[in-house]
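Q:
My hope is that you can spare some time for a protein that puzzles me. I hope you can help me see how the letters and the tokens relate. Thank you; the sequence and its tokens follow:
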Amino acid sequence: MNESVEKTEVKIFDIERQDDTIILTPMKNLNELEFQRIEGGAGTILRLLDDAHVKNVVMDFHKMDYFASTALSFFLKIWKKVMKNEGHMALCNVSEHEKQVLKVTMVDSLWPICASREEAIRAVKK
């Protein structure tokens, strides 16, 4: 008996482009169990940043409220590429829990943490 199994893959990041800026929206919490999918998303995003016309990144966290160390590693990879491109990175809609993680890991001073997407886009366009 041959049964068809339907597999549904939930996209981990929504990726938008606005001129020279990529807006990344994680679609769910980025915990350690999502390592493979975070790494896969990182590869896609790093390739987008190889485009000479893309240099800024906005991370919009409005669809989640938690990330783990694997996600922090991903953010740092993105940030290094942004710096190489002489661009800027900003975070927005960051939950109180996420702000605490950023503070404890001492990376909260690396990127502006903005209240809204619009504010973050303005911050990277400086």
Summary: The longest strand covers residues 13-18. The chain has four helices and five strands.
